[in-house]
Protein backbone atom coordinates (compact mmCIF):
# COMPACT_ATOMS: atom_id res chain seq x y z
CA UNK A 1 0.00 0.00 0.00
CA UNK A 2 3.04 2.26 -0.16
CA UNK A 3 1.88 3.62 -3.50
CA UNK A 4 -0.97 5.50 -1.78
CA UNK A 5 1.51 8.22 -0.80
CA UNK A 6 1.80 9.12 -4.49
CA UNK A 7 -1.91 9.74 -4.92
CA UNK A 8 -1.84 13.34 -3.68
CA UNK A 9 1.11 14.46 -5.88
CA UNK A 10 -0.49 12.65 -8.83
CA UNK A 11 -3.82 14.36 -8.19
CA UNK A 12 -2.16 17.77 -8.00
CA UNK A 13 -0.27 17.09 -11.24
CA UNK A 14 -3.42 16.04 -13.08
CA UNK A 15 -5.29 19.04 -11.68
CA UNK A 16 -2.65 21.41 -13.04
CA UNK A 17 -2.63 19.55 -16.35
CA UNK A 18 -6.40 19.92 -16.68
CA UNK A 19 -6.01 23.71 -16.78
CA UNK A 20 -4.57 23.36 -20.28
CA UNK A 21 -7.22 20.95 -21.57
CA UNK A 22 -10.27 22.28 -23.39
CA UNK A 23 -11.63 23.68 -26.62
CA UNK A 24 -9.85 26.99 -26.18
CA UNK A 25 -6.07 26.85 -26.27
CA UNK A 26 -4.13 27.84 -23.17
CA UNK A 27 -0.38 27.36 -23.23
CA UNK A 28 2.42 27.89 -20.77
CA UNK A 29 4.24 30.03 -23.33
CA UNK A 30 1.18 32.23 -23.75
CA UNK A 31 0.84 32.70 -20.00
CA UNK A 32 4.52 33.57 -19.63
CA UNK A 33 4.36 36.05 -22.51
CA UNK A 34 1.31 37.70 -20.88
CA UNK A 35 -1.25 36.81 -23.54
CA UNK A 36 -4.57 38.44 -22.60
CA UNK A 37 -6.56 35.63 -24.24
CA UNK A 38 -4.72 32.88 -22.38
CA UNK A 39 -4.98 34.60 -19.01
CA UNK A 40 -8.66 35.47 -19.52
CA UNK A 41 -9.52 31.86 -20.42
CA UNK A 42 -7.49 30.55 -17.49
CA UNK A 43 -9.03 32.86 -14.88
CA UNK A 44 -12.61 32.95 -16.13
CA UNK A 45 -13.03 29.31 -17.18
CA UNK A 46 -10.27 26.81 -16.41
CA UNK A 47 -9.61 27.66 -12.75
CA UNK A 48 -13.34 27.88 -11.87
CA UNK A 49 -13.89 24.56 -13.65
CA UNK A 50 -11.11 22.92 -11.65
CA UNK A 51 -12.41 24.32 -8.37
CA UNK A 52 -15.94 23.17 -9.24
CA UNK A 53 -14.75 19.65 -10.05
CA UNK A 54 -12.76 19.35 -6.82
CA UNK A 55 -15.56 20.67 -4.59
CA UNK A 56 -18.22 18.57 -6.33
CA UNK A 57 -16.16 15.40 -6.10
CA UNK A 58 -15.33 15.99 -2.44
CA UNK A 59 -18.91 16.84 -1.48
CA UNK A 60 -20.55 13.88 -3.18
CA UNK A 61 -17.87 11.42 -2.02
CA UNK A 62 -18.08 12.52 1.61
CA UNK A 63 -21.88 12.61 1.45
CA UNK A 64 -21.87 9.04 0.21
CA UNK A 65 -19.59 8.03 3.06
CA UNK A 66 -21.81 9.67 5.66
CA UNK A 67 -24.95 8.14 4.15
CA UNK A 68 -23.34 4.72 4.30
CA UNK A 69 -22.55 5.22 7.98
CA UNK A 70 -26.01 6.50 8.86
CA UNK A 71 -27.77 3.72 6.97
CA UNK A 72 -25.21 1.01 7.82
CA UNK A 73 -25.17 -0.03 4.18
CA UNK A 74 -22.32 0.14 1.66
CA UNK A 75 -24.64 0.63 -1.30
CA UNK A 76 -26.40 3.78 -0.08
CA UNK A 77 -25.42 7.14 -1.57
CA UNK A 78 -27.14 10.39 -2.63
CA UNK A 79 -27.94 8.64 -5.92
CA UNK A 80 -29.45 5.47 -4.43
CA UNK A 81 -31.30 7.29 -1.64
CA UNK A 82 -33.29 9.65 -3.83
CA UNK A 83 -31.45 12.78 -2.69
CA UNK A 84 -30.39 13.91 -6.16
CA UNK A 85 -34.00 13.54 -7.32
CA UNK A 86 -35.08 15.64 -4.34
CA UNK A 87 -32.66 18.37 -5.41
CA UNK A 88 -34.18 18.51 -8.88
CA UNK A 89 -37.64 18.80 -7.36
CA UNK A 90 -36.43 21.66 -5.18
CA UNK A 91 -34.88 23.53 -8.08
CA UNK A 92 -38.09 23.09 -10.07
CA UNK A 93 -40.16 24.50 -7.19
CA UNK A 94 -37.79 27.45 -6.94
CA UNK A 95 -38.22 28.18 -10.63
CA UNK A 96 -42.00 27.89 -10.42
CA UNK A 97 -42.55 30.01 -7.30
CA UNK A 98 -39.54 32.32 -7.64
CA UNK A 99 -39.35 32.87 -11.39
CA UNK A 100 -36.42 35.29 -11.24
CA UNK A 101 -34.66 33.53 -8.39
CA UNK A 102 -30.90 33.50 -8.12
CA UNK A 103 -28.80 30.36 -7.80
CA UNK A 104 -28.62 30.94 -4.05
CA UNK A 105 -32.41 30.80 -3.72
CA UNK A 106 -32.52 27.65 -5.82
CA UNK A 107 -29.89 25.98 -3.63
CA UNK A 108 -31.77 27.04 -0.47
CA UNK A 109 -35.07 25.57 -1.70
CA UNK A 110 -33.27 22.46 -2.98
CA UNK A 111 -31.59 22.01 0.40
CA UNK A 112 -34.98 21.98 2.12
CA UNK A 113 -36.49 19.46 -0.29
CA UNK A 114 -33.37 17.31 -0.09
CA UNK A 115 -33.50 17.35 3.70
CA UNK A 116 -37.17 16.38 3.56
CA UNK A 117 -36.32 13.53 1.18
CA UNK A 118 -33.49 12.38 3.45
CA UNK A 119 -35.82 12.35 6.46
CA UNK A 120 -38.40 10.31 4.56
CA UNK A 121 -35.72 7.85 3.48
CA UNK A 122 -34.50 7.57 7.08
CA UNK A 123 -38.06 6.83 8.24
CA UNK A 124 -38.38 4.18 5.53
CA UNK A 125 -35.16 2.56 6.72
CA UNK A 126 -36.47 2.35 10.29
CA UNK A 127 -39.59 0.52 9.08
CA UNK A 128 -37.66 -2.02 7.00
CA UNK A 129 -37.00 -5.23 8.90
CA UNK A 130 -35.32 -7.01 6.01
CA UNK A 131 -31.91 -5.26 6.12
CA UNK A 132 -30.41 -6.93 3.06
CA UNK A 133 -27.45 -5.05 1.58
CA UNK A 134 -29.03 -4.85 -1.88
CA UNK A 135 -32.65 -4.40 -0.81
CA UNK A 136 -32.16 -1.03 0.92
CA UNK A 137 -30.58 0.80 -2.05
CA UNK A 138 -33.29 -0.67 -4.30
CA UNK A 139 -35.90 0.87 -2.01
CA UNK A 140 -33.99 4.16 -2.16
CA UNK A 141 -33.90 4.09 -5.96
CA UNK A 142 -37.65 3.39 -6.10
CA UNK A 143 -38.19 6.29 -3.71
CA UNK A 144 -36.08 8.51 -5.96
CA UNK A 145 -38.07 7.46 -9.03
CA UNK A 146 -41.31 8.39 -7.26
CA UNK A 147 -39.92 11.86 -6.54
CA UNK A 148 -38.70 12.11 -10.12
CA UNK A 149 -42.20 11.24 -11.37
CA UNK A 150 -43.66 14.18 -9.41
CA UNK A 151 -40.89 16.41 -10.75
CA UNK A 152 -41.58 15.45 -14.37
CA UNK A 153 -45.34 15.88 -13.86
CA UNK A 154 -45.00 19.43 -12.54
CA UNK A 155 -42.37 20.22 -15.16
CA UNK A 156 -44.81 19.21 -17.90
CA UNK A 157 -47.56 21.35 -16.38
CA UNK A 158 -45.35 24.44 -16.37
CA UNK A 159 -43.49 23.65 -19.63
CA UNK A 160 -40.17 23.23 -17.81
CA UNK A 161 -39.32 19.67 -18.81
CA UNK A 162 -36.32 20.78 -20.85
CA UNK A 163 -34.89 22.50 -17.78
CA UNK A 164 -35.29 19.30 -15.78
CA UNK A 165 -33.55 17.21 -18.44
CA UNK A 166 -30.52 19.50 -18.26
CA UNK A 167 -29.95 18.46 -14.63
CA UNK A 168 -29.91 14.72 -15.32
CA UNK A 169 -26.16 14.62 -15.88
CA UNK A 170 -23.36 16.68 -14.41
CA UNK A 171 -21.78 19.12 -16.83
CA UNK A 172 -18.76 21.29 -16.04
CA UNK A 173 -18.41 22.76 -19.52
CA UNK A 174 -20.61 25.72 -18.60
CA UNK A 175 -18.76 26.55 -15.39
CA UNK A 176 -17.50 30.12 -15.49
CA UNK A 177 -16.46 32.69 -12.94
CA UNK A 178 -19.60 33.97 -11.25
CA UNK A 179 -21.67 30.88 -12.06
CA UNK A 180 -20.27 28.26 -9.70
CA UNK A 181 -19.80 30.04 -6.35
CA UNK A 182 -22.86 28.36 -4.78
CA UNK A 183 -20.70 25.25 -4.55
CA UNK A 184 -18.93 26.90 -1.62
CA UNK A 185 -22.04 26.24 0.46
CA UNK A 186 -20.95 22.63 0.70
CA UNK A 187 -17.56 23.46 2.26
CA UNK A 188 -18.87 24.31 5.77
CA UNK A 189 -20.80 21.04 5.70
CA UNK A 190 -17.59 19.16 4.88
CA UNK A 191 -15.78 20.84 7.77
CA UNK A 192 -18.62 19.98 10.13
CA UNK A 193 -18.57 16.37 8.97
CA UNK A 194 -14.83 16.21 9.70
CA UNK A 195 -15.28 17.29 13.32
CA UNK A 196 -18.23 14.94 13.84
CA UNK A 197 -16.60 12.01 12.06
CA UNK A 198 -16.18 9.87 15.17
CA UNK A 199 -19.82 10.36 16.12
CA UNK A 200 -20.92 9.26 12.67
CA UNK A 201 -18.82 6.14 13.14
CA UNK A 202 -20.69 5.38 16.37
CA UNK A 203 -24.01 5.91 14.61
CA UNK A 204 -22.91 3.33 12.05
CA UNK A 205 -22.52 0.77 14.85
CA UNK A 206 -26.22 0.90 15.65
CA UNK A 207 -28.58 2.98 17.78
CA UNK A 208 -28.39 0.90 20.94
CA UNK A 209 -24.58 0.76 20.86
CA UNK A 210 -24.28 4.51 20.22
CA UNK A 211 -26.73 5.41 23.00
CA UNK A 212 -24.89 3.16 25.47
CA UNK A 213 -21.74 5.15 24.72
CA UNK A 214 -23.53 8.38 25.59
CA UNK A 215 -24.18 9.63 22.07
CA UNK A 216 -27.32 11.58 21.22
CA UNK A 217 -28.25 9.30 18.35
CA UNK A 218 -31.16 11.24 16.84
CA UNK A 219 -29.38 14.59 16.96
CA UNK A 220 -26.27 13.14 15.31
CA UNK A 221 -28.33 11.54 12.54
CA UNK A 222 -30.19 14.82 12.04
CA UNK A 223 -26.91 16.73 11.79
CA UNK A 224 -25.56 14.24 9.27
CA UNK A 225 -28.67 14.53 7.10
CA UNK A 226 -28.45 18.34 7.19
CA UNK A 227 -24.80 18.29 6.09
CA UNK A 228 -25.53 15.77 3.34
CA UNK A 229 -28.52 17.81 2.15
CA UNK A 230 -26.52 21.04 1.98
CA UNK A 231 -23.63 19.49 0.08
CA UNK A 232 -25.75 17.47 -2.34
CA UNK A 233 -28.08 20.40 -3.09
CA UNK A 234 -25.21 22.80 -3.74
CA UNK A 235 -23.59 20.40 -6.21
CA UNK A 236 -26.64 19.19 -8.14
CA UNK A 237 -28.28 22.63 -8.31
CA UNK A 238 -25.05 24.16 -9.64
CA UNK A 239 -23.45 21.63 -11.99
CA UNK A 240 -26.04 18.84 -12.21
CA UNK A 241 -26.23 15.29 -10.92
CA UNK A 242 -23.13 13.09 -11.02
CA UNK A 243 -24.47 9.54 -10.64
CA UNK A 244 -22.89 7.00 -8.28
CA UNK A 245 -19.81 9.07 -7.41
CA UNK A 246 -20.86 9.00 -3.77
CA UNK A 247 -21.20 5.23 -4.00
CA UNK A 248 -17.99 4.29 -5.78
CA UNK A 249 -15.40 6.54 -4.11
CA UNK A 250 -16.18 5.69 -0.45
CA UNK A 251 -16.07 1.96 -1.19
CA UNK A 252 -12.76 2.25 -3.03
CA UNK A 253 -11.23 4.29 -0.21
CA UNK A 254 -12.58 1.86 2.40
CA UNK A 255 -10.77 -1.01 0.67
CA UNK A 256 -7.43 0.59 1.51
CA UNK A 257 -8.05 2.61 4.68
CA UNK A 258 -10.87 0.74 6.39
CA UNK A 259 -13.98 1.89 8.22
CA UNK A 260 -12.46 4.65 10.34
CA UNK A 261 -14.41 7.61 8.98
CA UNK A 262 -12.13 10.31 10.34
CA UNK A 263 -9.06 8.56 8.94
CA UNK A 264 -10.47 9.11 5.47
CA UNK A 265 -9.87 12.84 5.89
CA UNK A 266 -6.53 12.62 7.64
CA UNK A 267 -3.93 13.30 4.94
CA UNK A 268 -0.84 12.66 7.16
CA UNK A 269 -2.12 9.17 7.93
CA UNK A 270 -2.73 8.56 4.24
CA UNK A 271 0.83 9.60 3.44
CA UNK A 272 2.17 7.32 6.17
CA UNK A 273 1.33 4.18 4.18
Describe this entry's structure for a reader.
The chain is mainly alpha-helical and 273 residues long. The chain has one domain: ABC transporter involved in vitamin B12 uptake, BtuC, CATH 1.10.3470.10. Helix content is 68%, strand content 0%. It is built from 13 helices and no strands. Helix 3 (36-71) packs parallel to helix 9 (197-204) and helix 3 (36-71) packs antiparallel against helix 11 (217-239). The longest helix has 36 residues, at 36-71. The radius of gyration is 20 Å and the shape is globular. The termini are close together. Residues 264-273 have low confidence and may be disordered.
Could you tell me the CATH topology label.
ABC transporter involved in vitamin B12 uptake, BtuC
What is the overall number of helices?
13
Output the radius of gyration: 20 Å
Number of strands: 0
Structural class determined from secondary elements:
mainly alpha
In terms of DSSP E residues, the strand content is under 5%
Low-confidence stretches: 264-273
Give average pLDDT, whole number: 86
N-end to C-end Cα span: 6 Å
Share of helical residues:
55-70%
Taking the sheet with the most strands, its summary is: none
Give the tally of structural domains. 1
Shape: globular
Class in CATH?
Mainly Alpha
CATH superfamily, by name, is ABC transporter involved in vitamin B12 uptake, BtuC
How do the strands and helices of this protein lay out in sequence?
Elements: H1 7-18, H2 28-32, H3 36-71, H4 83-97, H5 103-127, H6 135-157, H7 161-165, H8 186-195, H9 197-204, H10 207-212, H11 217-239, H12 245-257, H13 267-271
Helix pairs in contact: 3-8, 3-9, 3-11, 3-12, 4-5, 4-6, 4-11, 5-11, 8-11
Amino acid sequence: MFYLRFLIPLTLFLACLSLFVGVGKVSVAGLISGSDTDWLLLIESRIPRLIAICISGACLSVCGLVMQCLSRNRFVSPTTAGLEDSVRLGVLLAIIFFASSSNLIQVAVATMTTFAGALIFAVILRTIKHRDAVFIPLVGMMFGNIINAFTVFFALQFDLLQNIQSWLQGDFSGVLSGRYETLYIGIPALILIYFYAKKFILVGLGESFAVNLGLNYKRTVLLGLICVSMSTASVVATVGAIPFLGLIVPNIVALYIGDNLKKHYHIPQLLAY
